[in-house]
């Protein structure tokens, strides 16, 4: 069994987004986009309710999502960037009336119940398989994709370590999924 990998190619990310949009799968689109833009674990994503991202009293989107991580028990505050907010807005406008206690990524029968991890995995795997995107991609790939692309944009490892709540640089390095072509690029750019 191999290790889950990040989605390293930006074009593959766009292909997956297009896959969901073409099929009007706005919940799945939002799950994918919010996942790759917040670095939240799938268990924390699936626990989100609409009131966590939308202030119903003021009719406004929140800037920060506050989550008590299921795995660590730590409080985590995550900035909700433009892409994540836009995906949620699109989903909310197509989902019909929602209230604050509804799960964002709810199942089709009950808005108070989130889809399962298994269902989330199937949603992601199907999009990849149908789009010809190969590799061991799973729910955890969303979190790893965030880290990989942040690293490619020169976000310091110490910051990534903090975002992921990792206890060591070694864990973060392993997490990033750095491969030979990433190493090759360093040598290609460094023509001394």
Structure characterization notes:
The chain has helices spanning 10-22, 26-38, 42-46, 50-53, 82-94, 117-131, 139-152, 157-164, 169-176, 180-189, and strands spanning 54-55, 60-61, 64-68, 75-79. It has 192 residues and is mainly alpha-helical. The strands form two sheets. Strands 1-2 form a two-stranded antiparallel sheet. A two-stranded antiparallel sheet has the order 3-4. The longest helix has 15 residues, at 117-131. It is globular, with a radius of gyration of 17 Å.
Descriptive labels:
192 residues; mainly alpha; two-stranded antiparallel ribbon; 10 helices
**Global geometry:** globular
Mean pLDDT: 93
In percent terms, what proportion of residues is strand?
A: 5-15%
Spatial order of the strands forming the largest sheet = 1-2
Alpha carbon gap, first and last residue: 41 Å
Low-pLDDT runs of 5+ residues are: none
- Rounded Rg: 17 Å
Oligomer: single chain
């Amino acid at each position: 069994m191999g290790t889950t990998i990040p989605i390293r190619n930006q074009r593959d990310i766009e292909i997956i987004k297009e896959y969901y949009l073409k099929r009007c799968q706005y919940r799945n689109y939002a799950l994918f986009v919010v996942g790759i833009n917040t670095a939240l674990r799938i268990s924390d994503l699936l626990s989100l309710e609409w009131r966590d991202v939308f202030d119903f009293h003021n009719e406004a989107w929140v800037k920060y999502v506050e989550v008590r991580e299921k795995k660590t028990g730590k409080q985590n505050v995550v900035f909700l960037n433009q892409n994540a907010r836009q995906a949620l807005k699109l989903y909310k406008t197509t989902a019909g009336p929602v209230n604050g206690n509804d799960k964002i990524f709810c199942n089709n029968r009950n808005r108070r119940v989130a889809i399962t991890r298994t269902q989330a995995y199937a949603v992601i795997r199907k999009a990849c398989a149908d789009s010809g995107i190969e590799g061991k991609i799973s729910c955890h790939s969303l979190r790893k994709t965030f880290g990989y692309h942040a690293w490619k944009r020169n976000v310091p490892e110490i910051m990534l370590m903090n975002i992921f709540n990792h206890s060591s640089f070694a864990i973060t390095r392993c997490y990033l999924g750095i491969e030979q072509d990433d190493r090759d690029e360093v040598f290609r750019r460094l023509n001394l």
